[in-house]
């Protein structure tokens, strides 16, 4: 089958030999890592000055997995309906045994760190599979280790302080083959993307309207104790128990629901945030009465890389939820190929364990930058399900939301499950946005849900909110309900969704009107019959999807 290879087609991803003299702290010789990683500083961050030599710098060393090719083959076999291994998920221990780095890699990295003054025994922690090593060290040691200079940056909106380097880092040539990347050197935590709504009155989205729209009705989960759903939260976004209670007072009528989150992983302190409240309130009202977790990667982890930390935490956890809803992303062009490849390996690992991972597509429409249409990542990853956005329409039910991001990856090729849909869209669409894009790239979003006019309780006050951050927990809750029905009938959960969804596109509500915005010159991606780059395959029909899932 024509699946996207992990050996991504990207220019200049091979290592580059540097000579001495990169900076005063440079190694004599070294190989550049993450060569394509952007060194731009986000507009919300301001450089303060050089980091103090004794300032503590946390770094995350990602050692290369073994058997990556086997991992990918198993991932697709487990995810593809009709395969003899469909939904035959792998245990945590078996997965770790298969992909854990070679002992030679572990020894080489430890030896290198010790030789540069890092106390691996007291200042570093391994994950169970020894695929990640999290260390703390002084800025002086980190600079000598990586051949860079660390600077202090402050986020103007939050006063958060982190240290980052503005040069590409290097490692010795004999260490380079053993590492994928080192986190905590370049990437900055991204800002949240939820926006206050300007939607027309009378078209607000509430649990009752969404349950009716997506054919859920009064159906609730909890039929099986196995079913678990979760939201991933970053950037000091915490939910409020008081707001959740008030939300259900206002919008919890007509269906049975849980009163609170069953398990919080990571920090959840005051003050709460609109993004986290939105995620929790809508996944718990759509996936009602299902055990729900709040997986928070914030606080001190912000000084590291919250997304990498989150993936490491999941990889190190034995029992994981079957559904994970995430609203987080960045421009694909700002990230290195090494980083995206490692992230994709993590997605495949959790898909092989049976997790459905859903990401918001973003709120930038076609995202025109300099006459180019710039895709988001991880939304553009072929190994996750990307959720775009719709708006309510009195005349036609739902239409493409102007904010809904979509498009085509410049890094990842089209997986087999969507080739025919994309070919039809590009061949038959009468209105494509101006600006260059990769016609052979992985297309996103995969699906959609309502993304405008959501009423979210924050600080005990209902407020309207827009964004694909609304659509993602909505769709995720529906997936959790489907899993609950599968468990009730003695079947396994859906796992990675896309091959199933594209095979059963008739079980979704096709959206064929209106367009996203922010194309080069105005118009973005337009909705059309079948798959399109504004709303994917469409929005969920719970009853049809359950029937299709039980039939597989």
Question: Your description of this structure?
Answer:
The protein is α+β, with helices and mostly antiparallel strands and 552 residues long. The chain is 27% helix and 23% strand. It contains 14 helices and 29 strands. The strands form nine sheets. Strands 12, 13, 14, 15, 17, 21, 22 and 25 form an eight-stranded mixed beta sheet that branches. The protein has a four-stranded antiparallel beta sheet with strand order 5-6-4-10, with helices on both faces. A three-stranded antiparallel beta sheet has the order 1-2-9, with no helix packed on it. It starts with 16 loop residues before the first strand and ends with a helix.
Task: List strands and helices in order, with pairings.
Layout: E1 17-18, E2 30-32, E3 45-50, E4 56-63, H1 68-79, H2 92-99, H3 103-115, H4 120-123, E5 124-126, E6 132-138, H5 139-146, E7 150-155, E8 161-165, E9 170-171, E10 179-183, E11 195-196, H6 207-213, E12 228-234, H7 241-251, E13 263-265, H8 274-286, E14 291-297, H9 306-315, E15 323-326, E16 330-331, H10 337-352, E17 356-360, E18 368-369, E19 372-373, E20 376-377, E21 385-393, E22 397-400, E23 407-413, H11 419-428, E24 441-444, E25 447-450, E26 454-458, E27 461-466, H12 468-488, H13 498-503, E28 508-509, E29 539-540, H14 542-551
Parallel strand pairs: 12-14, 12-15, 13-14, 15-17, 17-21, 21-25
Antiparallel strand pairs: 1-2, 2-9, 3-7, 4-6, 4-10, 5-6, 7-8, 11-27, 16-20, 18-19, 21-22, 23-24, 26-27, 28-29
């Amino acid at each position: 089958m024509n699946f996207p290879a992990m050996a991504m087609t990207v220019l200049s991803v091979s290592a580059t030999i540097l000579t001495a003299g990169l900076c005063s702290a440079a190694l004599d010789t070294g190989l550049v890592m993450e060569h394509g990683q952007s060194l731009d500083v986000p507009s919300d961050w301001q450089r303060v000055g050089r980091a103090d030599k004794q300032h503590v710098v946390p770094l995350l060393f990602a050692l290369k997995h073994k058997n990556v090719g086997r991992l990918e083959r198993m991932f697709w076999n487990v995810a593809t309906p009709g395969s003899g291994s469909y939904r035959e998920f792998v245990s945590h221990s078996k997965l770790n045994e298969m992909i854990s780095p070679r002992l030679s890699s572990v020894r080489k990295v430890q030896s290198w760190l010790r030789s540069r003054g890092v106390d691996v025994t007291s200042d570093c922690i391994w994950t169970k599979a020894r695929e990640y090593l999290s260390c703390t060290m002084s800025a002086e040691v980190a600079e000598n280790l990586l051949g860079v200079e660390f600077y202090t940056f402050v986020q103007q909106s939050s006063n958060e302080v982190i240290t980052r380097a503005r040069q590409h880092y290097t490692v010795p040539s004999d260490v380079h083959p053993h590492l994928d990347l080192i986190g905590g050197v370049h990437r900055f935590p991204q800002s949240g993307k939820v926006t206050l709504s300007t939607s027309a009155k009378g078209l607000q989205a509430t649990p009752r309207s969404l349950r009716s729209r997506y054919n859920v009705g009064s159906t609730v989960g909890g039929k099986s104790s196995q079913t678990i759903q979760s939201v991933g939260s970053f950037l000091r976004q915490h939910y409020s128990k008081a707001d959740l209670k008030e939300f259900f007072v206002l919008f919890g009528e007509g269906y049975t629901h849980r009163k609170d989150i069953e398990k919080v992983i990571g920090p959840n302190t005051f003050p709460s945030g609109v993004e986290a409240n939105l995620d929790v309130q809508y996944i718990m009202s759509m996936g009602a009465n299902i055990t729900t977790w709040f997986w928070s990667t914030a606080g001190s982890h912000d000084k590291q890389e919250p997304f990498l930390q989150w993936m490491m935490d999941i990889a190190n956890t034995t029992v994981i939820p079957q559904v994970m809803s995430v609203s987080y992303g960045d421009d694909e062009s700002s990230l290195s190929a090494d980083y995206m490849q490692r992230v994709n390996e993590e997605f495949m690992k959790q898909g092989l364990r049976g997790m459905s991972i859903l990401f918001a597509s973003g709120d930038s429409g076609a995202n025109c930058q300099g006459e180019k249409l710039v895709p988001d990542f991880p939304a553009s990853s072929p190994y996750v399900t990307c959720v775009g956005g719709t708006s309510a329409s009195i005349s036609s039910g739902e239409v493409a939301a102007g904010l809904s991001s979509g498009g085509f990856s410049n890094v990842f090729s089209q997986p087999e499950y969507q080739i025919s849909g994309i070919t039809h869209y590009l061949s038959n669409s009468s209105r494509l946005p101006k600006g260059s894009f990769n016609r052979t790239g992985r297309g996103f979003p995969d699906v959609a849900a309502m993304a405008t006019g959501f009423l979210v309780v924050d600080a005990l006050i209902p407020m309207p909110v827009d964004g694909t951050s609304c659509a993602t927990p909505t769709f995720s809750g529906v997936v959790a309900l489907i899993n609950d029905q599968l468990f009730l009938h003695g079947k396994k959960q859906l796992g990675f969704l896309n091959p199933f969804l594209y095979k059963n596109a008739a079980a979704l509500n096709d959206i064929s009107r209106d367009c996203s915005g922010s194309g080069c010159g105005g118009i973005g991606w337009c909705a059309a019959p079948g798959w399109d780059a504004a709303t994917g395959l469409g929005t969920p029909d719970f009853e049809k999807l359950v029937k299709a899932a039980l039939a597989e």
